[in-house]
Design brief:
heterodimer; A: mainly alpha; B: 728 residues; alpha+beta; Alpha-Beta Plaits; Calcium-transporting ATPase, cytoplasmic domain N; 7-stranded mixed beta sheet; 23 helices; 49% helix; 17% strand
Chain lengths: 49, 728
């Protein structure tokens, strides 16, 4: 069972990465306009015509 | 006349060196394509460095570099592409709420992460305990759990700990006290147990509890933030501009920028932006928004006029007076303060439950400990059992029982076009047994309407209405609401004080006074009606304009009566104006010509009879009455002071939201008490098991999540709470 000594911290580390990614996204305002983001992707004015 | 400059410097905020920014609420956004159109149009303005539209709350942020850029160009650019922008400063309350919502979301994320990981470790221990886990592995798992749980709880539990601490210091036990105590004791006991190589630790229970409760709080906050943003936008949309003389040059400024001593111009058909004294000009003033009285008051130089009244006839110049102590508005504010402080603090259902719950739970835990000691158990076992009682009774279900319903019900109210101002309005709305209506602007539409549509040739009415779009006269504005093409005629000219004229198909059309249209006005005088005349070629029409009942008022009043509510009309208007409305609606209890203080007196009288009064009103004169009533509603067109007093604000032309408010709230209230009973039943089953010392962490986890899920699912039933559609 010695494998647990590093597998458990590794799993926790991965989880923490996810947590910090979420907190970063929250801080940078990624959740402040959820509806707008869904609609902006449909706008293709940025393409060369 | 050249376009008047619009001075918006009040709203521009410095953002870094040499850059400024402004927030605008944008009206008219209908689809996703609007995002690109609006941002594109604004970004093309010279000097603008950034424009970003938030589609969720319909707000546009524009940044520009210092230089020749004038913010009013943004409004013009928006208008060109068919939107209207309204600059605004976010309310402090809204900003604070946004910060609190972000903090709760961070706490929720941390609690969620920690709860999931600790649960992963706990499940391993539980399955290991019934198979072949070695004590070393179990200790390792427990210590790993402690390592995650302690910092996570210290961070995510802060909203509860802080509130609990405030509660303890001020001497009243709120729901956060048993929550905090349960969490802290569970964690402390788990650490001690882990150090003693014990089989059971409760790290997962503590974190799961925090996670569930934070879910409820975050949802509650998000819902409130959403409604607050809509309310903020509506307030910005209403924000009117005033014409100010700056060294004899006329400048348009936001009303918020007006100061005492300013000289203002008030055109016909505009609202008086501030209290003041007339310097020049003659006019008639409509003060229905302030006093409820619909008869006009004649004013001339030297007369005092009040903010919110409507300038009906001529152009006035006025000097702004500071709230000098004796104005009508000040008097109303004084009454307001008194009424608000006299309002008995209705204790919220959740607080009442907490007041009973906390002592009972803590007493049970203490008795359990004493009982086990007397039965001869070791101190360790007795304390562990007592803490298990605290953990299992930790009011997870109880703390969710009411907020969950609150969230779902305010969502339902929002869809019924009601915006809640006060958190506990739902509970108080459900208790109302008497509804008092104001008349003007509440039972009737806030603006006058054409009342003889059926008597006028439809084609003629359309032409007249379209012509009316070119005038600012209040009667013309009322008529223009009937116009279906919203585009005015080209080349229409307004003759001040007389009417508008334009040439259509080679013949002249005139809209305005009887003399202007070559008509004889003597035979069409009827009480309470104002008339506007229209002439085109050989056609003539007389259009009557008057206060009109909200379209569904009769049906709503009938439905309210069917709910066994006592209905009363209290109006500041003349008795002759109130009687027909009361008769049309079939309301027997009505009074007219009431002063604000008399309205309060009436409400106090009803209160003494043990009635719970719902006051619905819009005028400035209703504000004290709204504050004095048990619960209050006001339409969105209401005066600002009035709206601030109301527990909820409703949108649109219909009166139906008043009915919806009561129906949804009553149902929500029912679900709240159902949920409380569910929580009580849960405790009645779980507590004896805990007292018997048979609770393992697995049982605690199942019981807690099971009961939380149950009350949440039950709360979702508030979503369906909609009245039967009433015929309008």
């Amino acid at each position: 069972m010695n494998v647990l000594i590093y597998m458990v911290p590794l799993a926790l580390g991965l989880g923490l990465t996810g947590l910090f990614a979420f907190l970063w996204a929250l801080r940078s305002g990624q959740y402040s306009d959820v509806e707008g983001a869904a609609l902006r992707v449909l706008d293709d004015d940025d393409l060369q015509k | 006349m050249t376009a008047e400059a619009f001075d918006l410097s009040l709203y521009a905020k410095p953002e870094g060196t040499g850059r400024f920014g402004m927030e605008l609420a944008v009206d008219g956004i209908a689809c996703g394509a609007c995002i690109g159109r609006i941002e594109g149009a604004v970004k093309q303005l010279p000097g603008v460095t950034d424009a970003r539209l938030n589609y969720t709350n319909r707000r546009l942020h524009v940044a520009w570099a210092e230089g020749g850029f004038r913010p009013s160009q943004i409004l013009a650019a928006l208008e060109n592409i068919g939107y209207s922008g309204h600059p605004f400063v976010p309310l402090r309350a809204e900003q604070e709420e946004a910060a609190e919502a972000r903090r709760l979301t961070r706490c929720l994320a941390v609690a969620g992460f920690a709860a999931m990981n600790v649960m992963l470790l706990s499940v391993s221990v539980w399955s290991g305990n019934v198979t072949d886990i070695t004590p070393e592995t179990r200790d390792f798992f427990h210590w790993a759990s402690a390592l995650i749980a302690l910092p996570a709880a210290a961070y995510a539990g802060r909203p509860f700990f802080e509130s609990a601490w405030r509660g303890i210091r001020s001497g009243n036990l709120n729901m956060n006290v048993p929550i905090s105590l349960g969490v802290i004791l569970a964690l402390a006991m788990s650490v001690v147990e882990t150090a003693n190589h014990a089989e059971h630790a409760y790290f997962d229970s503590a974190l799961m509890l925090l996670f569930f409760l934070l879910c409820g709080r975050t949802l509650d906050h998000e819902m409130r933030r959403k409604t607050r943003a809509v309310a903020g936008n509506l307030a910005a949309l209403k924000g009117e501009a005033a014409h100010r003389f700056d060294d004899d040059e006329l400048v348009r400024v936001p009303v918020a920028a007006i100061a005492a001593g300013d000289r203002l111009l008030v055109k016909a058909g505009e609202r008086v932006p501030s209290d003041g004294i007339v310097l020049t000009g003659n006019s008639e003033i409509d003060e229905s928004l302030i006093t409820g009285e619909t008869a006009r008051r004649k004013v001339a130089a030297g007369a005092t006029i009040y903010a919110g009244s409507m300038n009906d006839k001529g152009t006035l110049t006025m000097r702004v007076t500071a709230g000098g102590g004796a104005t009508l508005v000040d008097e109303i504010e004084k009454l307001l303060e008194k009424a608000a402080s006299a309002k008995s603090h209705a204790m919220r259902l959740a607080d009442r439950a907490a007041r009973v719950y906390a002592p009972v739970v803590h007493m049970t835990a203490a008795l359990t400990c004493a009982g086990w000691l007397l039965a001869g158990a070791s101190i360790h076992d007795a304390v562990v059992t007592a803490i298990a009682v605290l953990i299992i009774t930790c009011p997870c279900a109880l703390a969710l029982a009411i907020p969950a319903v609150q969230v779902v019900a305010s969502g339902a109210l929002f869809r019924a076009r009601l915006i809640l101002n006060a958190g506990d309005a739902i509970e108080r709305l459900a208790e109302a047994d008497t509804v008092i209506f104001d008349k003007t602007g509440t039972l009737t539409l806030p603006e006058p309407r054409v009342v003889n549509v059926a008597e006028v040739n439809p084609a003629l009415l359309q032409t007249a209405a379209r012509l009316a779009l070119s005038s600012h006269h209040p009667l013309a504005v009322a008529l223009s609401r009937e116009a279906s093409p919203r585009a005015p005629f080209d080349g229409a000219t307004e003759e001040p004080g007389q009417g508008v004229r334009v040439t259509i198909d080679g013949s002249e059309a005139r809209l305005g006074s009887a003399a202007f249209c070559g008509l004889d006005a003597s035979d069409v005088h009827e009480r309470g009606l104002s008339h506007i005349y229209f002439a085109h070629a050989e056609h003539r029409a007389v259009i009557a304009v008057s206060q009109k009942l909200r379209p569904d008022a009769v049906a709503v009043v009938q439905a309210l009566k069917a709910l066994d509510l006592k209905l009363v009309i209290l109006s500041g208007d003349r008795v002759e104006a109130v009687r027909p409305v009361a008769e049309a609606l079939g309301i027997r209890d009505w009074l007219g010509e009431l002063k604000p203080a008399q309205k309060i007196e009436m409400i106090e009288q009803l209160k003494r009879q043990g009635r719970r009064v719902l006051m619905v009103g819009d005028g400035l004169n209703d504000a004290p009455a709204l504050a004095a009533a048990h619960v209050s509603l006001s339409p969105i067109d209401a005066a600002d002071v009035t709206q601030a007093q109301a527990d909820a604000v409703f949108l649109g032309e219909n009166l139906a939201p008043v009915l919806d408010a009561i129906v949804i709230s009553r149902r929500a209230r029912g679900l709240m008490s159902q949920n409380l009973w569910l929580a009580v039943i849960y405790n009645a089953i779980a507590v004896p098991i805990a007292i018997a010392g048979m609770v393992t962490p697995l049982i605690a986890a199942l019981a807690m999540s099971g009961s939380s899920l149950l009350v949440t699912l039950n709360a979702l039933r508030a979503y369906k709470a909609r009245r039967q559609e009433i015929a309008t």
